[in-house]
Amino acid sequence: MLSVEGLESAYGDSRILFGIDLAVARGEVVTLLGRNGMGKTTTVKSIFGLLKPRAGRILIDGEDMAGRPSHLVARRGLGLVPEGRQVFPTLSVEENLVATHRGGRGAKWNLEAVYRLFPRLKERRRNGGDQLSGGEQQMLAIGRALMTNPRLVVLDEATEGLAPLIREEIWACLRAIKDEGEAILVIDKNVDALARFADRHVVIEKGRVVWTGTSAALREAPEVKDRFLHV
Predict the structure, then answer these.
(1) 227 assigned to some structural domain
(2) 34-54: pLDDT as tens digits
(3) What pTM did the predictor assign?
(4) Phi, psi (rounded to 5 degrees) for 131
(5) What does the CA dihedral 186, 190, 191, 197 come to, rounded to 10 degrees?
(6) Which of 41, 61, 133, 167 is the S-S candidate for 159 at Cβ 3.0 to 4.6 Å?
(7) In a domain? residue 65
(8) Where does the ABC transporter domain start and stop, copy by copy (predicted)?
(9) In this structure, are residues 33 and 197 in contact, taking their beta carbons and an 8 Å threshold?
(10) Is there a domain that residue 85 lies in?
(11) Predicted confidence band at 60 (pLDDT cuts at 50, 70, 90)?
């Protein structure tokens, strides 16, 4: 469904990505791993049209969307849960969700579906976005992305800064999303949790892909974690 080929991106004269290749098939969960500053968020911004690539292709169902505006990328079925959550602080939980709803034939994500996934959001549906805990804001950010009825959900730092119990709740909800058949591209530092959840992994170092493989292969390659993932 998504294929990134030879992606190169920069901020001004400062090059960040040097030929990134990755792919996500329908219903597959793929991670993008690496230490801070290695180019993970830049890759996400490039995919979503928030940063225009210098070179490479970003294929969605075979159509090259590199450099296209973000709203066109979203219409092709990509939903983003951004780093830092970025919920609308002055809107209620329900208004945050309704604001991004995109229905149509076969659409399975609506308010009730999101509330079933995240009962806590239903309890807090009248609260403003700035009245939620960090974990609740992350649930809202995920729910907001699902309300676009995407075919691929991209999560940038899925559980960053969350308490252990809340992290487990987020992982459980992501497994439920996977069980619904959604494709997921996820960035997170919790490698052990990702290895239990994801199908494949892409590790980047200084803007280049240095390792790819399945969860089983990652568990059997401690040198990959030691060299490229541990601080």
Answers:
(1) yes
(2) 999 999 999 999 999 999 999
(3) 0.93
(4) -105, 10
(5) -60
(6) 167
(7) yes
(8) 2-231
(9) no
(10) no
(11) very high
